[in-house]
Amino acid sequence: MSAPVTSPEPAPIALPKTSESAELLKIRHSMSHVMAMAVQKLFPAARVTIGPWTENGFYYDFDNPDPFTEADLKAIKKEMGKIIGRRLPLERIAVTREEAEAKIRAQNEPYKLEILEGLQEPITLYTLGDQWWDLCAGPHVANTSELNPKAFELESVAGAYWRGDETKAQLQRIYGTAWETAEQLAEYQRRKEEALRRDHRRLGKDLDLFSIEDEAGAGLVFWHPRGARMRLLIEDFWRQTHFADGYELLYTPHVADISLWKTSGHLDFYAESMFGPMQVDEREYQLRPMNCPFHVLTYASTLRSYRELPIRWAELGTVYRYERPGVMHGLMRVRGFTQDDAHVFCLPEQIGDEILRVLNLTETILSTFDFKTYEINLSTRPEKSIGDDAVWDLATKGLIDALDRKGWSYKIDEGGGAFYGPKIDLKIEDAIGRMWQCSTIQLDFNLPERFDLNYVAADGSRQRPIMIHRAIFGSLERFFGIMTENYAGDFPFWLAPEQVRLLPVTDEVVPYAEDLLSRLKAAGIRASLDRSGDRLGKLIRTGEQQKIPVLAVIGAKEAEDHAVSLRSRRDGDLGSVAINALLEAGQEANQTRAARLNLPAA
RNA sequence: GCCGGUGUAGCUCAGGGGUAGAGCAACUGAUUCGUAAUCAGUAGGUCGUCGGUUCAAAUCCGAUCACCGGCUCCA
């Protein structure tokens, strides 16, 4: 065995976020001023509004009679380069409200005037040379010579509303990115390309996992055989862990009489997210946007005793929600999706234990997909809410108690809960550092009340149960998209739709390969045989492009030895492996949900 | 829904009022080959959809649908 020849690892280029670097914050903030100055030079009619930094750059919103084009961006960038080259000083000046107002009026900047009205003294502005200034709290670099003209780029132009309010003026937002060095900029652009390479819409098409069909409508997902096989594996795993954790599973209808949604209250506050009702016979039916009322009805179908509690019911419940045109996005935002929904009905004193169970189950499930870093938010009682103080107090303490026992740190979003109960949200971090919210645990004091749920307590009285909603994946579609991007389509062995592909070197060995194929399938290993007749190099290339975890080369030698020559996508050449060893390793990997084959040492 | 952009073969894209183009993929044949592309041939499209202008529309105009980047919203 020879040691691989490696060139020395290049030092990784760190890309600090604005919130992590005071220097970058100043650079980006100043860059937005330079851009605004450039825009107003080239487009004198443009009115300025706000121009903050973002985590990787900056933007500035303008009110301009015409939208900016790509060509405009080029011209603006060029003008910015000139401004930077003039080494203009940026100076902070404290002014009185009256002075500021006079200056703004002189320049006819209505948005700035509106901003000024909301400001407390002291009011500051920043100059940029003697030609341009902006109402701004800073901080900024002292001189444009501190900005690197080779380390910024204007990225895109987009519509945005004044103050984020869609009833207000439509503005033109120009996004840019800025760094200390050209190398950082290049690295940032490389990472953007990496995100593009991982895009689940791209991978879903390339790997033939799913599609969204124009004819059927936006936001409706077609799972192709490969994607469906993966979804089934995910669902099987999910069911297994739920049964093991004391859940029972339900199946409930996708439509129901609209009165159900009147009782639940959804018609009052959720109607605009619902598909319209449909008339059937003499009744109106509603496609469901949520599963909860169905579980509630199931609970209410008979008289419950305190001895039955906690009741844990889960369902892979498909729901339909009306999303406005233009908001759909691959699998991440769709109109029909399946929630891994569960509801726990319990006694007040069981809250802490039940939440802890959910946290443990969440960790078990998410870590199986290699999501091991979480960010947790606890949201407490908002001002407008129902239920009495004692219940809220008990419930919130239950959530905190469970998080503490789990040993997870969390942030508290004071008053961020729903009107009907406090909640825990969990975000997962993917392989390229993006955070995604999937899991949520939500206490609900509202639905039990509305549906008059109760149980018979030890003393014979009727009591109201506590209801916990929870989802771990959130939506299977969305989770599938996130997971696909996390793995960049390079799925672990247990989850890959096609695990092993047999590559015959010549036609002579095809019968042997056929026999091996049926043995692999009988062992529950998802295998195929490439019958294209292409040369080995081409077969390997195709297999690698389709991201098949294990390629098994079969030539005369292998047929003779009852072996295969394995090539692992993750580990490279694994050499010759006996068929029995492959069968065993494949079965074991499937049982243990392993990322790779564990082969006996040769 | 709003702002901007884009819809041409399965995929990536070129063309731009007058007979629809390439590469890859597919299919067929030859080759029987050892770790990321063998060679040759064949087939494939009412140019997203509907309407208008024109002798003539894939091309110009309008509407509509979908997608892309954002805004708003959100699992």
State the oligomer: single chain
Distance between the termini: 13 Å
Strand content: 25-35%
Q: Helical region count?
A: 18
From the structure above, extract its key features.
28 strands; Threonyl-tRNA Synthetase, Chain A, domain 2; 18 helices; RNA-binding; disordered N terminus; 602 residues; eight-stranded mixed sheet; BirA Bifunctional Protein, domain 2
What does this structure look like?
This protein has four domains: 18-195, Threonyl-trna Synthetase, Chain A, domain 2 (Threonyl-tRNA Synthetase, Chain A, domain 2); 227-252 and 291-480, Bira Bifunctional Protein, Domain 2 (BirA Bifunctional Protein, domain 2); 255-287, no CATH class; 493-592, Anticodon-binding domain (Rossmann fold, 3-Layer(aba) Sandwich), CATH 3.40.50.800. Mean pLDDT is 91; it is low at 1-9. The chain contains 18 helices and 28 strands. An eight-stranded mixed beta sheet has the order 10-15-16-23-20-19-17-18. The chain is α+β, with helices and mostly antiparallel strands. A hairpin with a 3-residue loop joins strand 27 and strand 28 (572-578). Helix 1 (22-42) packs across helix 2 (70-85) and helix 11 (351-368) crosses helix 12 (389-406). The structure holds one RNA strand of 75 nucleotides.
